[in-house]
Q: What sequence folds into this?
């Protein structure tokens, strides 16, 4: 598994979830394990949607 930058905290991680933006579906959202656990918000770089 490759290292990816978390969309919430910006840290590189091997343990992440990756999914398309729920609004635009074009940008990939990457969430590290920690940010998913503590429900840190993220923002889509393409459409600006904020999520938990």
A:
């Amino acid at each position: 598994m490759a290292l990816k930058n978390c969309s919430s905290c910006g840290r590189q991680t091997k343990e992440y979830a990756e999914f398309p933006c729920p609004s635009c579906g074009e940008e990939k959202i990457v969430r590290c394990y920690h940010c998913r656990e503590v429900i840190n918000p993220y923002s889509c770089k393409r459409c600006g949607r904020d999520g938990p």
